[in-house]
Amino acid sequence: MMSNPHPSGHSGQNRALLVQVRNAVLPALGASFGKVLAGFDDALFDRAEGAGASQLLFLDGMRELRRRREEIVTLFNTHLRKAWDALEAGTVQSAESVLAGQTEGGLSLVPEHVLESRLAVRNFATVLLRDWKPVLARIDRRLAWIGGVAELDADTNPIGAEHIGVAVHEAFSTCDLAPEVRLVLIKLCEREFAHMIGKVYQSLDEQLAQAGVMPEISQPRRAAPRPAAQVPSASAAETGEDLYDPQQAPAWARRFVDRWSQRRGAMSAAESSGYGAGHGEPSAGPASPAVLLEALQELLAQTRHVREDATAAAQVAVGQQRPLSQREMMSVLSLLQATPSATLRAAVGEDGESLAQRLKSEVLSGATQLGVDPSQARLDPQDEDAIDLVGMLFDVMLDERELEGRSRELIGRLVVPFVKVALLDRRMFVQKTHPARKLLNSLAEACEGNTGESPAERVLMGKVEEIIERLIAEFNENLAIFLTLEEEFRDFLGQHRRRIEIAERRAAETQRGQEKLELARTRAAAELEKRLAGAPLPGAIADFLRQPWSHHLTLSLLREGESGEGIDEALALADTMLEEVAEARRHIVGKLWLQTSQPVLRKVFASVGLHGEASVVAIDALHDTLQSIAEARPELERPLPELPQVALPTPPAPENPAIELGGAAHAQDFDHTDADRFRHMEIGTWLDFVDKDGKVQAGKLSWVSPISSRLLFVNRRGVRFCVASPEELAVMVRLERLRPHMDDGAFDSAMQGVIDRLDPQTATLH
């Protein structure tokens, strides 16, 4: 919970209007929730009929809802009332803090079914925010104005989408429901309850405007009218002519066509015939599929002699050879698809060998199985272009993506099928919705960085392998198989992403726990060092402070944060003990040493597993040690008894950085503007991390530590792979190890690399 001061000149809280709004809105929301809840019985019964083995779970859920219906509505209302009470008190309550349970303390992990429930209500809140965004934005401002707080947002508006999501979570929190039943109920709220909430929002917005609360925001500016959306015709869909908006085209296409157009423009100025609009220039926009294909063909033609030089020694005079027919090409490729040669498999596994060159050699040698003399055959130039494009596409993908081991092998098995697609339908290179292209993007995303360490990763890799096996077995010359497999895999990924989001939440919780532990250990160590800094202490006293007391203080800090009753009690005990050592050194005889501290001492020893008589023996050892100092009789001093072996908190394992910065990087050697940009970066932003070998891994900002301000990045499976400060990220930028993420998919990212290799100005052909 946090307080927002009133901004300067603010009119302050309008208590009467707040009460009026409360009386109008909270009962309406509670009544709406009760109404939809009453209809969930039928919905669960319908689910039970088709739930198979889970039927009893849904029937039990029906009985639980009937038994606890009033309690469920009460819990829903209670949360909203508490959130509203906070606003009336001049503070605001964070829905995220309530949902994350930040007041619980400790390091225990949240059960998976609770994480799933939290995720489901967050999705519910997202739907509300999406559907009622304009009206909620106005309600945020109006409620802040009458509540006397600086601002309200999605997280702090007491009747906003986030708090309603938390209220739904709290409503079902005490119910004994199977996880799948609980998720169904939250989904039903999303479907049935959201519209009723929207009506309450609209009514409140109108009432506040009529009451004179910021009436000027009631009529948002109208956006300029847009032309009616054009639906592509059937013929356009059949020909694959995507309605390419130059601003929406992939980055590689825009950059490439810009360069190509400039060269064509220079040629046009130099030649009287030219390529202007009046001389047959296509009328499509600069990034249209037709122009893009023409540009690619021209670039391939310009660089064909460079690519042919690599295999010139193996060629004979072109005039003595005939090109392989398409039927022969497809037959050879089908053989390679079913049983790829050992040399082709080796080329997939090696970074240095060009897949394009290996593919062309394999096709020519494979033609012998059809009775073709390879010395009398050659590739048709257009077929060779297709092989070159696909080969370079996979070369770039395998070089730059984090594809190792089994992932690399599986993606490599797609090379031959994609050559066949390129021969059958060259629009694959320019049609952004092409099913083969979409399938490759999804499979590459699933494989990238997937080492199969977790059960979820192994399940995902198993599905990838299944999809690829089916493609290889079933793809002849009918492209429909790509559409079928892409839809199936997309559905699977939809289910898998829920596990990813749970893993992401788990990663954030683990990082939060580690940082709380690190902070607690650092504070405990500092408090211990402060008390040991003076004259050397007797052995038993020093051992007590270093072991059981330090352990007890660390646990208290973990439970209570920076301050709390347990922390104050532990610090006071240490100070009292040091005072008694000082008194003993002044030879005060006859004092009952540590008498007043015995209850706290027993608590400290209990925290390390010393109870009952054993703790009495330990306290007596401390007493006798102080008595020996006071009487100047060292023979009375006793050590502490042997303490149980306790699992003292250990510091978190050093973070393995995603990027090795190298010895040349210094902490001060970065642009402070970059660091500031990272400090204010939104959760959910993706960045590309580039390692020393040029491998690229996308990372999503998942969480920012309120303790250290470090940023946690997760990979596409929700697994933590980088935790860094804004300054460290700025150093990565300077070293060109970090860059904005272009979410064009694996296909388009690889195509940019292909264009760079083909471009005569930057060609690095393999």
Automatic annotation (TrEMBL):
Pfam families per the UniProt record, alphabetical: DUF1631
Compositional bias annotation for Low complexity: 219-237
UniProt-listed InterPro entries: DUF1631
Start and end residues of each stretch annotated as Disordered: 219-241
Identification of the protein by name: Thymidine phosphorylase
Organism for this UniProt entry: Stenotrophomonas pictorum JCM 9942
Taxonomic placement: Bacteria, Pseudomonadati, Pseudomonadota, Gammaproteobacteria, Lysobacterales
